[in-house]
């Protein structure tokens, strides 16, 4: 059964969504992220993808108090990302209640540090963020492109102990036009034992069903929930 992972993106402690990672295209959905997290929990969902967009920009964890509040006041399994750029940031995230932490930019720019985290905490706790634009890795809140092929990047880290990856096709994110099925199929073919978490572009429940048929491990859903394209009731049958 595919893991349903609703998303909360944070700017200034508020629940927002961006379009294609553009901070200029920001929409505030709720001033109180805990309220949103409790709605997910009440619907029977077990997980939460929490992203510190302020942190991604500042290159350090900023919204750790929101993480702490959600982790202490819900039973959700929280994976946290955004701005985790140092040992101290990682420690703050885990001490604030994150069950897993995603490293994206750090895995590109400071591979030795990311590998150290993998060895210290293990592949169950450290998720590889592999965001792509035209199949090339994008970093720093997607504001920077690279010439690194996403498939080679992920395969190299799987060999070093990565078990989970969250991969977003930047071109699809926030547009409600469907996810990048080809990206995930290619990742599956390259790394058959990897737990792939699809993110970006989910437009309706049929997208979730197709990813489930592909045996994708998990799917992150954000805007489709907030824009009422997918109801929490629709998702309950996946969270049995």
From TrEMBL:
A molecular function (GO) term: 1-(5-phosphoribosyl)-5-[(5-phosphoribosylamino)methylideneamino]imidazole-4-carboxamide isomerase activity
What keywords sit in the KW lines?
A: Amino-acid biosynthesis, Cytoplasm, Histidine biosynthesis, Isomerase
According to UniProt, this protein's pathway is: Amino-acid biosynthesis; L-histidine biosynthesis; L-histidine from 5-phospho-alpha-D-ribose 1-diphosphate: step 4/9
Q: Name one GO cellular component term.
A: cytoplasm
Q: Does the keyword Amino-acid biosynthesis apply?
A: yes
Subcellular localization, per the record?
Cytoplasm
Could you tell me the superkingdom of the organism this chain comes from?
Bacteria
Q: What class of enzyme is it?
A: isomerase
The record ties this protein, via Gene3D superfamilies, to:
Aldolase class I (3.20.20.70)
**According to its UniProt record, which reaction does this protein catalyse?**
1-(5-phospho-beta-D-ribosyl)-5-[(5-phospho-beta-D-ribosylamino)methylideneamino]imidazole-4-carboxamide = 5-[(5-phospho-1-deoxy-D-ribulos-1-ylimino)methylamino]-1-(5-phospho-beta-D-ribosyl)imidazole-4-carboxamide
What Pfam family does this protein match (any one)? His_biosynth
Q: Which GO terms describe its biological process?
A: L-histidine biosynthetic process; L-tryptophan biosynthetic process
Q: Active site located where? A: 9 (proton acceptor), 131 (proton donor)
Q: Which EC number applies?
A: 5.3.1.16
Q: Is NADP one of the keywords? A: no
The family assignment reads: Belongs to the HisA/HisF family.
What the entry lists under PANTHER family is as follows:
1-(5-PHOSPHORIBOSYL)-5-[(5-PHOSPHORIBOSYLAMINO)METHYLIDENEAMINO] IMIDAZOLE-4-CARBOXAMIDE ISOMERASE
What name is this protein filed under? 1-(5-phosphoribosyl)-5-[(5-phosphoribosylamino)methylideneamino] imidazole-4-carboxamide isomerase
Taxonomy-wise, where does this protein's organism fall, top ranks first? Bacteria, Pseudomonadati, Bacteroidota, Cytophagia, Cytophagales
